[in-house]
UniProtKB/TrEMBL annotation:
The keyword Iron does not apply. This is GTPase Der. It comes from Cesiribacter andamanensis AMV16. Belongs to the TRAFAC class TrmE-Era-EngA-EngB-Septin-like GTPase superfamily. EngA (Der) GTPase family. Keywords: GTP-binding, Nucleotide-binding, Repeat, Ribosome biogenesis. Residues 3-163 form the EngA-type G domain. GTPase that plays an essential role in the late steps of ribosome biogenesis. The keyword Transmembrane helix does not apply. One of its GO terms (molecular function) is GTP binding. GTP 1 binds at residues 9-16, 56-60, 119-122. Associates with the 50S ribosomal subunit. GO terms for biological process: ribosome biogenesis.
Length: 163
């Protein structure tokens, strides 16, 4: 079975920043479903000798608000269908938002391993908000910073334990 890690979450939480830190080499954007896969990027990563593909899901939730639930459902479903492990990224500086809860509703329907990743955990504000993410009901919250790299090693240790 392929080792595929999908990074999902609302726009601006830092998915692409983490993706760029993780991948060694980018694969061409796959485009077999126009308008749907357009914004998904694939890359290859490695951690403690384990190799995996990373999917960065795009920001097509932005824009028209009335279609956002449908867009979330589609984004998450596509990523989750392909993934072996799901990273659900939230913004520790912003705290829990309604949109995060919408994502969580869809993610909870998956049987695959999910890690809640509280990104931007690099200020005192972020430490204040971290506890809120336990309300998502998705278990342990991994506080990381995609810009400094803090916490990413512990998260990746867990992720590659599935491979
Ligand atoms: P995406 O829309 O989820 O892909 O988010 P981006 O990766 O584009 O990041 C959105 C913004 O958050 C950018 O301005 C990033 O520089 C910033 N950002 C991403 N990760 C971190 C982090 O760990 N700490 C801080 N302080 N800012 C971050
Ligand atoms: Mg992005």
């Amino acid at each position: 079975m392929a080792n595929i890690v999908a990074i999902v979450g609302r726009p601006n939480v830092g998915k692409s920043t983490f993706f760029n830190r993780l991948v060694e080499r980018r694969q061409a954007i796959m485009n077999n479903e126009p308008g749907v896969t357009r914004d998904r990027h694939y890359g290859y990563g490695e951690w403690i000798g384990k190799h995996f593909t990373v999917i960065d899901t795009g920001g097509y939730v932005e824009g028209s608000e009335d279609v956002f639930e449908e867009a979330i459902r589609r984004q998450v479903k596509l990523a989750v269908d392909e993934a072996s492990v799901i990273l659900f990224m939230v913004d520790a500086q912003m705290g829990l938002t309604g949109l995060d809860e919408e994502f969580a509703k869809v993610i909870r329907q998956s049987k695959k391993p999910v890690y809640v990743v509280a990104n931007k955990s690099d200020t005192t504000d972020s430490a204040f908000h971290e506890g809120e993410f336990y309300k998502l009901g998705l278990g342990e919250v991994y506080a990381i910073s995609s810009t400094t790299g803090s916490g990413t090693g512990d998260l990746l240790d867990e992720v590659v334990s599935h491979f």
